[in-house]
Amino acid sequence: TTKAFLPRMLELQHGHVVCLNSILSQSPIPGAIDYCTSKASSLAFMESLTLGLLYCPGVSCTTVLPFHTNTEMFRGMRVRFPQLFPPLKPEIVAQKTVDAVRTDKAFLYLPWTMHALVILKSFMPQVALEEIHRFSGSYTCMNTFKGRT
């Protein structure tokens, strides 16, 4: 799709490429290997594209990295502390995406606390990250998964 539309956007110096990704692109979990790897490759594509368009006036990118969104796709997924990390409402994700495009934000983490996860991952040892994942229940959240595969 990008290949089809980007040349005209560049010619017109007007356009915005939006990718609805997932925080699982940067923090994968067991039970969703195919999903996590496809999102990771999509993230790499968008990071490269965003950098490639830095000096292309009028054309930019937004990558949205939400946590668990309350849709049929993730039906049955359970987190250990749903009060701290409730599933996102699709309408909120949509509105925040539109807001990010309007403000030309390159990367949007939803909720904002997911950005902290990426920061922690950048300097914490793997063993510590595994303990955080075990404690939070993210390693077992897919055990009750009934959504689409």
TrEMBL record:
It comes from the Eukaryota. Pfam families: adh_short (PF00106). Signal peptide: none annotated. This is Short-chain dehydrogenase/reductase 3. The lineage of its organism: Eukaryota, Metazoa, Chordata, Craniata, Vertebrata. The gene is DHRS3.
